[in-house]
Every structure is written in structure tokens, then in C-alpha cells.
Write a structure and sequence with these properties.
mainly alpha
Length: 185
């Protein structure tokens, strides 16, 4: 039985565009530091192509780690987070929960890029929520709450803890109409 974090292929295609939008918004943070490295931009383009039905899940599963390795090519925390946002967007073809990972890394990147603006993370989350279509919202509501299902990226790993976990909790609370347990800066 597949993980509830997988989502159906049609739902993954629905959330892939939103994940790509989140990652693309902070891509400049990576490209400023590594302008010749196209891996994150390519990952975002692949997420969009997957959303349009031009790529299949199997092919993307094999390629999902390429953009993540680009994080090793940069040194600033904001650029690293931006590369990871792109990698998470590409990972949506494999598992829908990666859409929330793309959003969390993107919001974190925005905050890291603007340490003198304490509202930067929350502003990015607001933009992300406003960018969602009704279909995206509906698909993301099907995911288990972060930390409640161990069989995927929303389990007990990086996405469930620290600032990433707080961001995902805030997004999921907004999707359900409740308040998050812990706010983000």
C-alpha cells in the first residue's frame, strides 16, 4: 500500500506547478552565487513539465536528486535552501509531500536572505498560500500532518523539525483553517 504522502498521480501533477512556483521565486538566491549551474532551474522546469503530463513519474524518480546535489555548489544558507526547494519541487513526481518541502525550503531561503526582516518567512508563506489554486489546496489537504506518518518526507526527518517543520505546520494549519502550534518568525 502506498504512503498517504504519495498522493495520486493526478494530485501530484496538480501540486507540482505550485511547488515549482515556490522554488522559482527564490531561485535567484542560488543563481546569484552559481550562475553557471543550471540544475535547480532544470529541476523546476521538469516539475512544470511533469505537471503538464509531459514527463512520467518513473523517469523523474530516477532524476530527483540532481538538483539537491547543486546545494553542495554554493555556500550561503539562502542559496543552499533555494537549491533544496528546487529539488523538492522535482521530487513531487515521486511523492506529493515534496510540494510542502519545496514551499518550506523556499520560505526558509527567503528568510535567510533577509535576516534583518523578521517577517520575511511569514510573507513568503502568505505569498505561497495566495498562489494556491483550489485544486492544489484540495490535494495538499489529503496529506497527513507533518510528523504524523513516518513513511515519507513529512515523517520524522528534516521536513518535520526546526524551521522547515514550523513552516509546513503553518501551511497545513492555513489549509485546514486552524492555528499552527508553533509560529514562524
Amino acid at each position: 500500500m502506498p504512503s498517504p504522502q504519495s498522493l495520486s498521480e493526478s494530485d501530484r501533477r496538480r501540486v507540482a506547478t505550485w511547488a515549482a512556483d515556490c522554488a522559482e521565486r527564490v531561485l535567484v538566491l542560488f543563481e546569484t552565487e552559481a550562475p553557471a549551474d543550471g540544475r535547480p532551474r532544470d529541476a523546476i522546469a521538469r516539475a512544470r513539465a511533469f505537471a503538464r503530463g509531459e514527463l512520467d513519474s518513473a523517469g523523474e524518480i530516477r532524476r530527483r536528486f540532481v538538483a539537491g546535489r547543486a546545494a553542495q555548489a554554493v555556500s550561503s544558507p539562502a542559496a543552499v535552501a533555494a537549491a533544496r526547494a528546487a529539488a523538492q519541487a522535482a521530487g513531487v513526481a515521486h511523492m506529493g509531500a515534496h510540494a510542502l518541502g519545496a514551499a518550506a525550503y523556499a520560505a526558509n531561503a527567503a528568510g535567510l536572505a533577509a535576516p534583518d526582516q523578521p517577517e520575511a518567512v511569514r510573507d513568503e508563506i502568505s505569498w505561497q498560500l495566495e498562489r494556491m489554486t483550489d485544486q492544489t489546496r484540495s490535494a495538499l489537504r489529503r496529506l497527513p500532518l507533518v510528523g504524523e506518518d513516518s513513511a515519507g518526507p513529512l515523517g520524522s526527518g528534516l521536513l518535520a523539525s526546526g524551521i522547515l517543520g514550523s513552516i509546513i505546520r503553518e501551511i497545513q494549519a492555513a489549509l485546514s483553517g486552524t492555528s499552527p502550534q508553533k509560529g514562524v518568525r
